[in-house]
C-alpha cells in the first residue's frame, strides 16, 4: 500500500530526515491561510508517477496565482487519479539531485540499500548509475557509508547522506515497509540535504501492528477501488469521482475487509465471473479462460489454506462475500466456481453457494461449479437435484464457462 | 532436508484453528507427531498428542524432534521459530500466511547462522506420498511415484498433483516453497535436492508471476541439473500490478532489475520473462496444468 507524498514526509519529519516547511491543502481556499512565505510549490498528491510532466506541480509567487493553480491541479487527473489533497511546500534551490531507497531483495533475502548519484525525473540515467548494498546482518551505519562511497560521494556528503540512509533504514524496519524512497534528495550549494519527494510502500500484512499506518491505509483503500473501475465508466470532475467511490466501496463494509481484502478482487469487462481459492489457482483459471477465447467479467481469490485462523466457518463466510461481490458485476452472465483443497467439505460448500445465491436480490448468473476435496460425491448428488452439474476436470469447466459466456440468453 | 516416515514432528500452534484441523489429518497419514505447543494449555491433548507450554519442555518430555511445523498467528511466527532454533530444532516448516517480511529476514539471519532449514512462510508444506504429510496438502490428490513437484503455490500445487495422479503418474514428493517475497528455501535449493533424490526421475516446477525465482531456477537447471524438468507458470493474463494476494515480490523484482540489469526495461517477474528463461534452458513449459502429464511422459521416455 503506497502512502502519499505528504504522508511519507510526515514520517520522514518524525524520524529526523530533513524536509521543507509544508502545509496540506484540502481545498483551494486553504491557500489563503498559508503560513509558508512565497514562492511556494503546489504538488498534486496522487500515487501515480509522472505528475510533474502532466502539470500536477506548479511554482507560484502570490496568493491569486496560488488559488488558481490549486483549482487547476485539483481538477487535473494524473493517469485517471484525481488528487484529494495538495501539498504546498517551500521552494528549494538544488545543485545536485540524488536517488536513495531501501527495499527488500527477494533473491538475497535481505533488505537492500539503493542509491544513484543521478536522481530526479531522468529515470534512465538514475537506473544506469544505480548502486546497491545488501544489508546482510543487523543494520549498522557502515552499510550506509558503503553505499555513499559506491555512489561516488565524498567529503562532507558521506556523513550527511549516510545519516539520511540510516534514518530511512530505521523507518523501514520500525514501520515494516516494503519500500522507502527519496527521489530526489536535493543538495544545495552549501552542501545541505533535503528530501524533496518521497515514496513509502507499507507492507499490507504488517498493518495490524502499526495503528498509525493502518489509519492512513484505510483512507487509501477507497482509492485502490477507484483504480480498478473500468476506464469507460469514468468521467472527469471531482463529483464523478466522489460518486464512483460510494458506489464501488459499498458492497464491502469495513468489517468485511478483515476477511476478504480488496486486493483479492479485480473487476474486468467480460461475461464470466471467476471465484477461486488460492492465488496461483485463480491466476491459472483466468489464463485458461483467456486461452479458450472467453472474457472474464471479474475474478476473485478467496484465499488459500495457509491462513492460521482458517476454519470451515470463516471460509464459508468468504464464499458468501465473494458471491455477493462477483455477481454484482453489470456484465456477468456465467459464474465459474473453482475450489479445491484438503480440509473443505464440497457438500457444505455446495450448500453455502446455492443457499446464498438464492438470497441475492438480483438474478444469479448461470453456474459452472467445480469442487474438489472431501465429500465431492455428496456434493454432486446434492447439486444434481438442483440441475447443477458438478464438473470434475478443470479443462471441462473452462469449456463450459466459455460456451455459456458466449451464448446470448441469460 | 531429511524426511523419513520415522521423523519426529512437533506442531507449534496446535490449537490454532488451522493447526487443530491439519494435525489429525497429518497424524492419520502416518506422520509421527510427538508433541504440540500452545502456551497455557500444557497437560491437554489433541488426538492423544501431548501439548506443552514451551518447546524445551516438550523436548524434555518426549525426546528429540526432527521437524517443527508452525501454524501460529503471523506476528508470533518469528518468536515460535526462534524458540525452536534455541531448543536445537534445525528443520522448520512455516505454514502461516502474512508473516511480515522483515520478521522473515530476522529469522533467516538466525537460521543461516545455526544451519537451520526454513520452508515457507505462506506455504502448504511438504508431502511424501504414501509416507509423510507435513502441512496442508490434500493427501487424496497424491499417489506414490517418481515425479517431484516444487511449487510456489498452494491450491495450484494440488491441481497439478491431481492431474498427475489422474494420468497415472505418482509423485516422489510435493514441496510448496511458499509465495511470499522473502522465503526460507528457493526453487534452486529444491532442484538440487530432487536432482540427488533417488526416488525422483523427473521434476515439475510450478511457478507464477512476480519475483525472479523462476528466472534464477532456469539458469540453475541449464548449468547444474541433470534430471529432466517440466514447468508451468501461472499468471500470463493477470492484469499488470495485480498479484492476487501473493506478495510476489514486485518491488523486489524492480530492485533486482535496477541492480542487476541496469538500463534494461523492468520486465523481470512477468510470465513472458519466466517462460522464455525456462525455454532458453530447454525446459518444456506447459500451457495449462492438464498438459503437464504429457510433458512428464515425454521427459521420462528420453
Predict the CATH topology of the largest domain in chain B: Rossmann fold
Per CATH, the superfamily of the largest domain in chain B is: Succinyl-CoA synthetase domains
Number of helices of chain B: 10
* Overall CATH architecture of the largest domain in chain A: 3-Layer(aba) Sandwich
Q: Specify the biggest β-sheet of chain A.
A: 6 strands, antiparallel
Based on CA atoms alone, the radius of gyration of chain B comes out at 19 Å
Assembly state: heterodimer
If you had to describe this structure to a student in words, what would you say it looks like?
The complex is a heterodimer of chains A (410) and B (302). Chain A has 410 residues and is an alpha+beta fold. Chain A has 3 domains: 70 residues, Dna Ligase, domain 1 (2-Layer Sandwich); 113 residues, D-amino Acid Aminotransferase, Chain A, domain 1; 156 residues, Succinyl-CoA synthetase domains (Rossmann fold, 3-Layer(aba) Sandwich), CATH 3.40.50.261. Chain A contains 14 helices and 15 strands. In chain A, the strands form 3 sheets. In chain A, strands 5, 6, 7, 8, 9 and 10 form a 6-stranded antiparallel sheet that branches. A 5-stranded mixed sheet of chain A has the order 11-13-12-14-15, sandwiched between helices. In chain A, strand 5 and strand 6 form a beta hairpin. About 9% of the residues of chain A have low confidence. Chain B is α/β, with parallel strands linked by helices and 302 residues long. In chain B, strand 1, helix 1 and strand 2 form a beta-alpha-beta unit. The longest helix of chain B is centred in the N-terminal third of the chain and has 13 residues. Chain B is globular, with a radius of gyration of 19 Å. The two termini of chain B are 29 Å apart. The relative contact order of chain B is 0.10. The chains are: A alpha+beta (410), B alpha/beta (302). Chains A and B meet through strand 5, strand 6, helix 4, helix 10 and strand 14 of A and helix 1, helix 4, helix 5 and helix 8 of B.
Amino acid at each position: 500500500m503506497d502512502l502519499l507524498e505528504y504522508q511519507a514526509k510526515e514520517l520522514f519529519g518524525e524520524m529526523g530526515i530533513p524536509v521543507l516547511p509544508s502545509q496540506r491543502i484540502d481545498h483551494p481556499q486553504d491557500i489563503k491561510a498559508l503560513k509558508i512565505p512565497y514562492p511556494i510549490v503546489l504538488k498534486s498528491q496522487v500515487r501515480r508517477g509522472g505528475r510533474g510532466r502532466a502539470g500536477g506541480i506548479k511554482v507560484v509567487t502570490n496568493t491569486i496565482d496560488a488559488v488558481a493553480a490549486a483549482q487547476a491541479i485539483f481538477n487535473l487527473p494524473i493517469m485517471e487519479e484525481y488528487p484529494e489533497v495538495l501539498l504546498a511546500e517551500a521552494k528549494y534551490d538544488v545543485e545536485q539531485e540524488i536517488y536513495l531507497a531501501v527495499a527488500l531483495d527477494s533473491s538475497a533475502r535481505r533488505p537492500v540499500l539503493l542509491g544513484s548519484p543521478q536522481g530526479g525525473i531522468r529515470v534512465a540515467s538514475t537506473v544506469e548509475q544505480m548502486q546497491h548494498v545488501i544489508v546482510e546482518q543487523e543494520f549498522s551505519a557502515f552499510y550506509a557509508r558503503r553505499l555513499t562511497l559506491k555512489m561516488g560521494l565524498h567529503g562532507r556528503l558521506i556523513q550527511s547522506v549516510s545519516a539520511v540512509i540510516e534514518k530511512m533504514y530505521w523507518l523501514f524496519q520500525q514501520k515494516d515497509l516494503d519500500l522507502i524512497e527519496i527521489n530526489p534528495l536535493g543538495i544545495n550549494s552549501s552542501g545541505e540535504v533535503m528530501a524533496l519527494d518521497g515514496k513509502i510502500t507499507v507492507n499490507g500484512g504488517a498493518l495490524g501492528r502499526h495503528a498509525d499506518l493502518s489509519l492512513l491505509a484505510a483512507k487509501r483503500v477507497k482509492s485502490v477501488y477507484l483504480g480498478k473501475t473500468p476506464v469507460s465508466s469514468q468521467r472527469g470532475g471531482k463529483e464523478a469521482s466522489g460518486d464512483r467511490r460510494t458506489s464501488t466501496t459499498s458492497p464491502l463494509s469495513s468489517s468485511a475487509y478483515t476477511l476478504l481484502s480488496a486486493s483479492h478482487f479485480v473487476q474486468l469487462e467480460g461475461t464470466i465471473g471467476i471465484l477461486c481459492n488460492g492465488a496461483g489457482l485463480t491466476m491459472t483459471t483466468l489464463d485458461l479462460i483467456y486461452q479458450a477465447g472467453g472474457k472474464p467479467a471479474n475474478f476473485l481469490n478467496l484465499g488459500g489454506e495457509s491462513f492460521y485462523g482458517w476454519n470451515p466457518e470463516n471460509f464459508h463466510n468468504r464464499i458468501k462475500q465473494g458471491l455477493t461481490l462477483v455477481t454484482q458485476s453489470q456484465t456477468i452472465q456465467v459464474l465459474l466456481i473453482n475450489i479445491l483443497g484438503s480440509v473443505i467439505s464440497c457438500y457444505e460448500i455446495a450448500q453455502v453457494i446455492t443457499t446464498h445465491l438464492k438470497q441475492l436480490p438480483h438474478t444469479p448468473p448461470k453456474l459452472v461449479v467445480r469442487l474438489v476435496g472431501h465429500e465431492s460425491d455428496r456434493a454432486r448428488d446434492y447439486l444434481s437435484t438442483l440441475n447443477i452439474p458438478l464438473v470434475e476436470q478443470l479443462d471441462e469447466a473452462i469449456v463450459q464457462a466459455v460456451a455459456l459466456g458466449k451464448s446470448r440468453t441469460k | 532436508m531429511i524426511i523419513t516416515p520415522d521423523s519426529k514432528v512437533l506442531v507449534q500452534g496446535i490449537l490454532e484453528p488451522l493447526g487443530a484441523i491439519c494435525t489429525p489429518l497429518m497424524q492419520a497419514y502416518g506422520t509421527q507427531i510427538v508433541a504440540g505447543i500452545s502456551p497455557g494449555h500444557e497437560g491437554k491433548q489433541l488426538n492423544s498428542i501431548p501439548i506443552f507450554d514451551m518447546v524445551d519442555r516438550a523436548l524434555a518430555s518426549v525426546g528429540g524432534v526432527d521437524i517443527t511445523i508452525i501454524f501460529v498467528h503471523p506476528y508470533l511466527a518469528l518468536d515460535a521459530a526462534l524458540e525452536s532454533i534455541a531448543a536445537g530444532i534445525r528443520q522448520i516448516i512455516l505454514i502461516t500466511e502474512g508473516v511480515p517480511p522483515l520478521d522473515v529476514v530476522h529469522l533467516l539471519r538466525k537460521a543461516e547462522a545455526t544451519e537451520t532449514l526454513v520452508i515457507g512462510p505462506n506455504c502448504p508444506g511438504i508431502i511424501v506420498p504414501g509416507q509423510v504429510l507435513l502441512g496442508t496438502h490434500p493427501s487424496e490428490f497424491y499417489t506414490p511415484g517418481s515425479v517431484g513437484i516444487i511449487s510456489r503455490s498452494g491450491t495450484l500445487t494440488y491441481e497439478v498433483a491431481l492431474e498427475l495422479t489422474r494420468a497415472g503418474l505418482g509423485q516422489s514428493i510435493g514441496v510448496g516453497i511458499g509465495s511470499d517475497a522473502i522465503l526460507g528455501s528457493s526453487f534452486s535449493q529444491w532442484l538440487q535436492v530432487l536432482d540427488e533424490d533417488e526416488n525422483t526421475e523427473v521434476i515439475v516446477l510450478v511457478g507464477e508471476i512476480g519475483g525472479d525465482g523462476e528466472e534464477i531456477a532456469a539458469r540453475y537447471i541449464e548449468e547444474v541439473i541433470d534430471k529432466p524438468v517440466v514447468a508451468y507458470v501461472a499468471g500470463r493474463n493477470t492484469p499488470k500490478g495485480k498479484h492476487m494476494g501473493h506478495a510476489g515480490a514486485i518491488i523486489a523484482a524492480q530492485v533486482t532489475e535496477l541492480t542487476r540489469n541496469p538500463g534494461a526495461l523492468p520486465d523481470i517477474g512477468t510470465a513472458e520473462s519466466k517462460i522464455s528463461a525456462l525455454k532458453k534452458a530447454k525446459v518444456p513449459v506447459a500451457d495449462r496444468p492438464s498438459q503437464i502429464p504429457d510433458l512428464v511422459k515425454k521427459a521420462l521416455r528420453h
